[in-house]
Amino acid sequence: MTETTATHCPYCALQCAMALTQTEAATPGRGARVALAGRAFPTNRGGLCKKGWTAAELINSPDRILEPMLRQPDGSFAPAAWDMALNLIAERLAGGRAEHGADSVGVFGGGGLTNEKAYQLGKFARLALGTSRIDYNGRFCMSSAAAAGNRAFGLDRGLPFPVEDLDAAATILILGSNPAQTMPPFIGHLDGARAAGGLIVVDPRRTATARLTENGAGSHVQPTPGSDLVLLLGLINIVIAEKLVDQDYIDSRTIGFDELRRSVGQWWPERVQAQTGVPTQQLRDLARRLASGRGTYILTGRGVEQHADGTDTATAAINLSLILGLVGTDHSGYGTLTGQGNGQGGREHGQKCDQLPGYRKITDPAARAHVAGVWEVHPDSIPGAGLPAVELLASMGESGGIRTLLVHGANVVVSAPNADRVRAGLAALDFLVVCDFFFSETAALADVVLPVTQWAEEDGTMTSLEGRVIRRRTAVAAPAGVRSELWIFQELARRLDAPSRYSTDPAEVFDELARASAGGPADYSGLSYGLLDEGQAAYWPYPAGSTGTPRLFRDRFQHADGRARMFPVRARVADAPAQQRGILTLITGRLLEHYQSGAQTRRVPELALARPEARLQLHPATAAQLGVADGGWVDVTNSRGVVRCRAEVTLSIRHDTVFLPFHFPGEQSANRLTDDVTDPVSGMPEFKRTTVRVRALAGEERGADA
Ligand code: SF4
C-alpha cells in the first residue's frame, strides 16, 4: 500500500493533522511501518511536536502485545487464544456480579478513546454489566473546568470558539497552562498577542510558555502555588473598583453581579499581594490590560484546575471574563485548554459516572427515556449515577467496593493520585482486565491483558479542544492477533447475554451515538462519517439540519433564560505551608517529550533518550539550603510515599516550590506523593499543591550508580 491516509495525532487535544503512508505491512510478529508527515489544518498549520513526529514508531514497537495474555499461577503471563481469554473474562464478570452484585464490577475508561469506543464502553458497562461504577481518567484533567462551564454557561465545551480566533487577539491571559511544551504548534496562535505586548502567563514556574512573554511580548505573573483563586478574586475586585466592567453586557447577558461584587470586597490588592506574592502594581496593570477592549481572551489549564478548589477557581476565571464582557463576543472569549486527545468527546458520550450520551444527566428521567429508546431497553434497566474516578479507585478492596475492574486506555498506577494506595487496591481485586497496546504499569498487574488496535489501525472520531469533531482513519492493517475494543465489547456482550446491539463498525456506532445525543447538550445528530469525510468543519452542537456551531454563546447562554450565571466563590486563606521550615510545595506536570503516564512515549527511543527519567526541579537557593547538587540524588517525601530521583537546579521555579513530571513509574512516580482529596463539585483531585520534604542523598544511600 503506498496511498497516503489523512488522519490526526494520537496524543493531545490539539489533534494536529497528519498524513500516514505505509512503508512495510504488518507481519504476524510486528505492526506495520509507517511514514508520517504533518498536514495543513487550522490548529497546527502543518506543524507537529516531537511526540507527534515519532508517534508512528509505536505501531511497530517490539514491546507491543500481539495476543491475549493470561496471568499464570506462578505470576508470569502466557499467551492465550482470544476465545479462551474472553470466555474467562465473561465467566468472572458474571460470577462476580452474581456473588457480589453488579456494582462490584467497575469500568475505568480513558480520554484517549475515540467517541465510538467511549460511547460503547458506557453502554456496555450499564447494559451488559449492569453497573453504575464507570468513570474515566478525564476526571483527573477536565472535570473542574467542565463543572465551572456548566454552572456558568449551562454548557461545557473547552474552547467555545475555533483556535484560529486567538490569532487576532491583542491580549491573552493564560492561567496554569504550558502549551509551549504540551502542544507546541498551538503557540503560533499567540503571535498576535505577543506582537501587541499582551501575552500574560500566570504560572509559579518560568515555563517555556512564560518565557514567550520576554522581550516586550507580555508579562509573567508568578504567584504562590495554589493561590490562583485569590489572584482571580483580586483581579475581579480591581476591575469592579476601577469601574472597568462592561455594564451593558452584565445587564443584558448575566445574572448575579451584585452578589459577585459583594463576595470579592475583601480581596483588595494589598491583601491579594500578601496571599499570592504578586505585587499590587502588577495586579492593577493586569486588570487594566484585560479591560483595554483590544480583543481579550482568558484561557485556563490544569495548573489552576487540578485543585481541591479547582471548580471555584475556573468559576472565578469565568466571572472575570463575564464582568469584562468577553464571552460570546467578537474577538474575545474565555476557554479552557483540554489536554487529552479526546478529553472533550470522552466526557460527552457516557464514560462519566453521572452522564449519558449527548452530555445528558443520568439522573434526568427524560434523558434516560431517550437513551433507553435508542438502546431498545426499559429506562429502569439503566443504572443510576456511580462514583467519580478517585472514589471508584478508592473503593477497590473496601467492603462493598469494586472487586472486578476493566481498564481501557488508562494507566492508573502512574496517573492516579496517591498511587501506592491505587496499587494496593488493584492488588486486592478479585479480577483485573486491562486493554492496552503495551504492558503498562497497570497492565502488568492484570489477570488478563487484551491487545488492542492503535490509532493508525482504526476508524473513529475524536473531538478536539475546540469542540470540532474530526475523523481518525485506518492507514494500516493491524497485526493479526490484535482486536478493536468495539469487537471486544461485542464478544463479551454476546457471552453475557446482554440486551441491545454492539456493532463493530465504527460508522454504525457513530450513527447510533448521534441518535442517542439528539436533543442533548452535545448534540451530534446532524453528523455522519459521510459529512465529516467531505471535509466539513464540524463543531458541536450539530443538530440534524444545522451546520454546527463554531462559536457558542453569540446570542444566548444555554441556561433556560439565556443568561450566564456569575456564581460567587470564596477562597480559603492559605496556611502558607512553604513558610514552615523545611516544607516545600510540589507541583506536578508534563514535559515536552512525554504524554500522560508515559506508557507510550517512554517506549519511543528518541523521546526516552531525551528525557529518560524524572528530575526534581528546585531553585538554586533552596538547593543550597538543602545541600542538593544539580544532578544529585534526592528523596522527596511526605506521609503518602517517597520519590527518589535526581535534582535539576533551575532559576525557573520559586524558592518555595519544587516540580516533578508525572510521566514516570516506580520510585520516580510523582503520584506516590499527591493526595487523593478531591474537589467537592467536580471530583477532580488535588495534583498541584502537595507538601513535601526534600533530602539530599549521600552516595552510599543511593548505591553504586549514585
Ligand atoms: Fe500531537 Fe499534540 Fe504534539 Fe500536535 S501538539 S503533534 S496533537 S502531541
Describe the structure.
With 706 residues, the protein is an alpha/beta fold. The chain folds into four domains: 4-58, N-terminal domain of TfIIb; 69-77 and 353-469 and 481-533, Rossmann fold, CATH 3.40.50.740; 143-336, Dimethylsulfoxide Reductase, domain 2, CATH 3.40.228; 583-702, Barwin-like endoglucanases, CATH 2.40.40.20. The protein has 25 helices and 28 strands. The strands form seven sheets. Strands 5-4-18-17-16-6-7 form a seven-stranded mixed sheet, with helices on one face. It has a six-stranded mixed sheet with strand order 24-26-25-28-23-27. It has a five-stranded parallel sheet with strand order 10-9-8-12-13. Helix 3 (115-128) packs across helix 21. 59% of the residues are buried. Bound molecules: iron/sulfur cluster (SF4).
Jot down its keywords.
706 residues; alpha/beta; N-terminal domain of TfIIb; Rossmann fold; Dimethylsulfoxide Reductase, domain 2; 4 domains; seven-stranded mixed sheet; six-stranded mixed sheet; 25 helices; 18% strand; binds iron/sulfur cluster
**What is the helix fraction of residues, given as a range?**
25-40%
CATH architecture term of the largest domain: 3-Layer(aba) Sandwich
Bound molecules: iron/sulfur cluster
Count of DSSP-assigned helices: 25
Radius of gyration: 24 Å
Q: How do the strands of the widest beta sheet line up side by side?
A: 5-4-18-17-16-6-7
Which CATH top level class of the largest domain fits?
Alpha Beta
Distance between the termini: 50 Å
Total count of domains: 4
Please name the fourth-level CATH homologous superfamily of the largest domain: Dimethylsulfoxide Reductase, domain 2
Strand content: 15-25%
Find the structural class using helix and strand composition.
alpha/beta
DSSP summary, beta strand count: 28
Oligomer class: single chain
Which fold name fills CATH's third level, the topology of the largest domain? Dimethylsulfoxide Reductase, domain 2
Unreliable runs: none
Shape: globular
Largest sheet: 7 strands, mixed
Mean pLDDT: 94
